[in-house]
């Protein structure tokens, strides 16, 4: 009698574009929709453990418009529950772990995860979980140094300015929804906004912000309405430096 092959355990740290793509690709290769082994897998069984500190996938590519123009999207269009995308797979094949990796032993192939076991508005409980793995995928991406958990830049009159990165630190106690709504409110009421970096993202944000201060041809601004001053800072003589000069000139013309 041929014994069943051992299950290969593969934790994936991070459930953004890279982590989700890897998880779906592995599951598609080694299993069918009813969780039976495919011929491509040659009898190999796998268990995917997808680890992420937030339960939803944030479509950060749309962040410039999400943050500057709240009516442009509904929350369900840019915050998508991660587990729902894997609902067709059984727990024997796939598990979503809400939590964050805290330590790793490459020699012993051990991964420690702080898993969220209870997450409500009033209570958040975590427990440490040790995972023995065969292969490990690290798709956690990068975290901006200017995060909402750090001291804010000083503003005028002794008040603090605001910093809104495109994604939160894994250790942040703020949820993505809270951070987005806070940013939307701050941007809508700000008098001066500085965008640091004049690459594609910086220019796109400046353009979206510029739309907020462009006067409408059919109506005039009210006397009490706050006006916004948008500043784009570039470390190079022209914006979009990786593109040809004519593209930079066109972008500059559109922004000014």
TrEMBL record:
InterPro entries in alphabetical order: FAD/NAD-bd_sf, FAD/NAD-binding_dom
A Pfam family that the UniProt record links to this protein: Pyr_redox_2
Keyword terms of this UniProt record: FAD, Flavoprotein, Oxidoreductase
GO MF term (any one): electron-transferring-flavoprotein dehydrogenase activity
Domain FAD/NAD(P)-binding: residue ranges: 12-253
Polar residues: bias regions: 245-256
Origin: domain of life: Eukaryota
UniProt keyword Amino-acid biosynthesis present: no
Transport keyword on record: no
Gene Ontology CC: cytoplasm
Segments for region (Disordered): 214-256
Assigned protein family: Belongs to the FAD-dependent oxidoreductase family.
PANTHER family in UniProt: APOPTOSIS-INDUCING FACTOR 1, FERROPTOSIS SUPPRESSOR PROTEIN 1
Protein name: FAD/NAD(P)-binding domain-containing protein
Organism ancestry: Eukaryota, Fungi, Dikarya, Ascomycota, Pezizomycotina
